[in-house]
Design a protein that fits this description.
- The protein is mostly beta strands.
- A hairpin with a 6-residue loop joins β5 and β6.
- About 30% of the residues are buried.
- Strands 2, 4, 5, 6, 9, 10 and 11 form a seven-stranded mixed beta sheet that branches. The chain has a four-stranded antiparallel beta sheet with strand order 1-3-8-7, with no helix packed on it.
- The radius of gyration is 13 Å and the shape is globular.
- It contains no helices and eleven strands.
């Protein structure tokens, strides 16, 4: 069982930056690849970024590529999402998620953290 708790959301002006954190419980954090998703008002949840268990490989949605960076610190059992050059369309609730196997669905989800980008 893995519990995920996001933090770091808030209100920021367009062009600004935020860093989201997702703290995971348990000693098996390194067994999981991690992802970030978001749900904007009135829209479906969408993929934002993913990082493999080793941290070597990452992927990003086209809408955030070049602006967002995902990273992980296994010693702190935490995954981060550095968000730069924020736009109003980045306004959403951001969720982190964990999955054990590369081709499986995500097994665990956090409760989300709100990001509001004001223009």
């Amino acid at each position: 069982q893995v519990q995920l708790v996001e933090s770091g959301g808030g209100v920021v002006q367009a062009g600004g930056s935020l860093r989201l954190s997702c703290a995971a419980s348990g000693r098996t954090f390194s067994f999981y690849s991690m992802g970030w998703f978001r749900r904007a008002p009135g829209k479906e949840r969408e993929f934002v970024s993913h990082i493999t268990r080793s941290g070597v490989s990452t992927e990003y949605a086209d809408s955030v590529k070049g602006r967002f960076t995902i990273s992980r610190d296994d010693a702190k059992t935490t995954v981060y999402l550095q968000m730069n050059s924020l736009k109003s369309e980045d306004t959403a609730v951001y969720y982190c998620a964990a999955k054990r196997y590369a081709f499986s669905e995500y097994d665990y989800w956090g409760q989300g953290t709100q990001v509001i980008v004001s223009s």
